[in-house]
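Hi F.,

I've been meaning to write this up properly since the lab meeting, where we talked about keeping a consistent format for the predictions we share between groups. The idea is simple: the sequence comes first, exactly as it goes in, then the C-alpha cells exactly as they come out, then a line or two of notes. No screenshots and no reformatting. I'm using this chain as the first example so we have something concrete to point to.
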Amino acid sequence: LLSHFSTGGTILSQNGSIKIHLGELLKESGLSKNKFCQKAEIQRSQLNGYINNTITRLDTEVLVRICRTLNCSIADLLEYNPPDEK
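Output, unedited:
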C-alpha cells in the first residue's frame, strides 16, 4: 500500500506529490468562496478540502467545474512534484 498524507498544501506519496493551486487561483479570480461554490456547484466543505489539500481523491467532474468556473487549465490547477523535490 502507498502511504498518502497531506502537509503544507501538498498531497504526498513515495511517488511524488500533487500541489493544488486552487487557493491562489481563487484569490486571483476575485470571487468570494461563496460565489465560487455557487458557480462551480460544489459544497463549501469540498472547496476547503481542495484549498487545504485535505482531499484523498481528486474528482474529475469537480476538477472540470473548477477549471470552467476559473477559466483555467488543469495545468494551472494541479502541479506534479517528483519524490526527490521538497
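Notes:
Residues 1-9 have pLDDT under 50 and may be disordered.
Strands lie at 5-7, 10-13, 16-20, 78-81.

If this format works for you, I'll send the rest the same way.

G.
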